[in-house]
């Protein structure tokens, strides 16, 4: 057996693991990263990046289609066509360029990458099955970054017809009829994209609203757009398996049963931390339910064993994993760091997009704050009008006594780009006066953030 030693072993090369590896390497720590699949993990290969490539394609297609039906902008064109196999090839090329980029960054940081599935034998030893046999790696520090996998429903096992987001993002033909089980952000992002590409889409959601993590006011413009796109949404409805014709059997809360005709059934009912198959049982790790328990420094219950990313809890987002990875590498290198983030912004790349950072009004009240909440609509924003998208608004939640901003939310076209401004305001402890007093370039959609702050102060200028 091949034997290797290092200061830091990173198990898993997703956004959490590869960032931990790069930062550890930059800090001069002798680091080995073990990856059994592809560098970049879920996010780069089958998650964030591929889904956004599809969403971009669908949006462009939809825009051309709308222009072909007549547009006030004066543009007219022939109806578009789509060759999904080409879209997939284009998406695969982006993924492959980014894979190469990550490999290059790890190399530059002098991180050794061992390709193969690793199994922890104890808190310091990992045995990796590589193409050349087994390699045993001994490390002083281990960073567990094994990520997550799509949740499979027992009544709807994944196969040719029932697929997870991974298979959906490699389809080379647009399904005629698509049923989506789960109305969270992944289901809606893909459901809306495939509707725009021509599928007849039905969304089946168990709770009483789409995007159940967000408040109704924030999700209403998305629901309106879905209605406009003729996406059927069945709320308080549960998927029950396939009927004898292979269609999706569903049942409502009140017990009404029916079948939904579908060529593909996309199941997006959440992600589960990957705690199997890498030797968790050989370790003595405390768990928090299904996740690995970590403290404020991402340290587990075992000495010098750290855990980051989706395997450690919600929100399962790439930027959380990356921030944790960077922090842990710095702690191992001796820096005094701990998790002191005020917010992890969350974005749904739906149509329109939804972004949320910090507390909602309800959360702020539940935390005992007396709050001022103000909202500025995009229909009063000049830039939104010139972009043919006046849907949505920006909302700001602040403490009533000292005007400290507690949360920012927005829904509208391309508001994902506001997420950094929101997070920065919260991290820097901005007050309403700071945002209201900052000159925002005109005409931009970000002016709605300034206007929301001014409105909270009682003197919005454009409404
Ligand atoms: P992962 O990315 O899951 O990486 C874990 C890696 O570990 C994998 O490469 C795996 O092969 C490897 N591994 C596991 N076990 C072993 C082992 N035993 N040996 C060797 N290697 C191993 N998040 C966002 O922030 N924004 C988005 O827009 C977004 N869109 C998404 C869209 C979809 C369709 C999906 C499915 C997810 C999306 N996410 C998004 C979530 C995001 O992909 C994850 O939060 C992120 O990838 C988590 O990073 P991670 O490093 O914890 O784990």
UniProtKB/TrEMBL annotation:
UniProt-annotated binding residues for NAD(+): 182-189, 205, 270
Cofactor comment text: Binds 1 FAD per subunit.
UniProt name for this protein: Dihydrolipoyl dehydrogenase
Organism: Aquisalinus flavus
Catalysed reaction, written as an equation: N(6)-[(R)-dihydrolipoyl]-L-lysyl-[protein] + NAD(+) = N(6)-[(R)-lipoyl]-L-lysyl-[protein] + NADH + H(+)
Family assignment from sequence similarity: Belongs to the class-I pyridine nucleotide-disulfide oxidoreductase family.
EC number: 1.8.1.4
Active-site residue numbers: 442 (proton acceptor)
Upper taxonomic lineage: Bacteria, Pseudomonadati, Pseudomonadota, Alphaproteobacteria, Parvularculales
Superkingdom of the organism of origin: Bacteria
